[in-house]
Amino acid sequence: MKVLIIEDEAIAGRLLKSTITAIDPDIEVVDIIDSIEASVEYLSTRPSLDLIFLDIELGDGQTFEIFKKVKIEAPLIFVTAYQEHALRAFKLNSVDYLLKPVNKEELAAALTKYKRLHRDQQKAVTDNIYHFLHQFREGGDTYKDRFLARNGTRLISIPVTDIAYFYTREKMQYIKTVNNTDFIIDKRLDDIEADINPKSFFRLNRQFIVGYRFIDKVQTWFNGKLKVQVKPAAYEDIIVSRLKANDFKRWLGGE
User: Does the keyword DNA-binding apply (predicted)?
Assistant: First the structure.
């Protein structure tokens, strides 16, 4: 989870960062920006952000000016000493409005609120996608039953029933067969994911798409994550994020 802080008081910015990461060590504070001008310049590059914490009164103006100059899609949590701006803030994409000095409990509650809203939104999007795909497949299209792969100069068509999992390593994509053989496949995992039956395969993380018959063991891991062992064994530990863990468990149960 990537977070940006917009705060012109250096001590307040560092304190907010340390409190956020103390509440959730998985959060990465990508930067602390201290002005309207620098914020507009940074946000104009369309960085990948999950959440923005921002003060309202900065040295070169109010942060509301940022929204007039650049489109911001990430949710916002305002952290300010000025209560009178609350109504205006909530007209934006605001999750919460915290008054300084902010204590750890208030900040934790705001993060929990964001995660709940984000989870509900993601579930709605996922449900819509699966509904669309289900209708699309019922319309006569089918999932792929084989993939073209290569081993050196040799091309081979591999049936899906012979595939244990797909994985990526060092910018290359591979098929791991049930016989523990690796083949290179010239397709991105995102494209492969769209071609396979989601009842049979699950995208565990950025590196692995695994067939349910080849999941050997699932263990609870740190901070709500899961550790998955597959067969044949993978080249690294497979960790399922906390955000994806519930979907994975439902998939394992056939939901």
Answer: yes
pLDDT per position as a tens digit, 53-72: 999 888 888 888 888 888 88
Retrieve residue 57's tokens: 């009164």
SS3 180: coil
DSSP letters along 8-25, please? S-HHHHHHHHHHHHHH-T
> Per-residue pLDDT tens for 221-255?
988 899 999 999 999 999 999 988 999 999 998 87
141 assigned to some structural domain: no
Question: Residue ranges of the alpha helices (H) in 104-174?
Answer: 104-138
Please name the residues in contact with 119: beta carbons below 8 A apart, sequence gap of 6 or more: 243
Count the residues in the chain: 255
Query: Dihedrals φ, ψ of 234, to 5°?
Result: -85, 165
Supply the CATH number for residue 77's domain: 3.40.50.2300
DSSP letter, residue 233: P
Q: What is d(CA 92, CA 230) in angstroms, rounded to the nearest whole number?
A: 45
On whether both 32 and 100 belong to a single domain, the answer is: yes
